[in-house]
Amino acid sequence: MKKLLAAGIAVVALACGAAPAGADALKPVQLPAPRTDGGKPLMQALKLRATSRAFAPDPLPPQTVADLLWAAWGINRPGEGKRTAPSARNWQEIDLLLVDAGGAWRYDAAANSLAPLVSGDLRHLTGGQDFVKDAPLTLVFVADPARMKGSEAASREAYAYADAAFISQNVYLYCASEGLATGVRAMVDRPALAKALGLGADRIVVFAQSVGYPRR
Ligand SMILES: Cc1cc2nc3c(=O)[nH]c(=O)nc-3n(C[C@H](O)[C@H](O)[C@H](O)COP(=O)(O)O)c2cc1C
Questions:
Q1: What is the reported pTM?
Q2: Are the beta carbons of 120 and 103 closer than 8 angstroms?
Q3: Where are the alpha helices (DSSP H) in 87-186?
């Protein structure tokens, strides 16, 4: 068990830091079990919540990535499969994609793993501002309208933005609690990013949100 965990962590370290040579280099990543206790009291985290636009380049450790993703959009009631953020009619239509120097992955909350999407550094496509390429990790919030059963086409985008915003605030509060820098942005070239990520034409790219250590 110990050996398995060590192997898993080594793979996450690769996924979150180095740039693999090609698509074959991306393998599914089993994340360490999230630590679901500790952190700052809520009122202190709220006092510290802020948008940052200056990141140190250092990659985040696998445990931090696992904790961040769980806080953002993990399953907190396994019996019901429900999550740390609400979603309209429990559609759970938001996919959280992780973009780092090595490639892009989709967070699978049930498996606590990262499923590979594409290799290569796409961080520069996650926003129009210069700092976006410095942050070691950017989360991209993508909605799948096919999961929004019974919704009217005209309201789907509004629901997707609302549901993504709850997840974004979870990321803000986790980062405030852990002394990490984060910033959400809507200023994204969505068609370019969707194309690079290989997303289907129906998917809605909502926000991007970078996470890292504050630049000193
Ligand atoms: C929907 C939304 C979109 C945003 N888009 C961007 C963006 O594209 N670039 C950016 O630098 N900040 C962006 N921000 C961050 C805001 O500028 C920031 O929240 C605001 O200035 C208040 O600062 P604070 O978060 O530190 O309180 C966005 C925030 C929200 C809620």
A1: 0.91
A2: yes
A3: 153-178
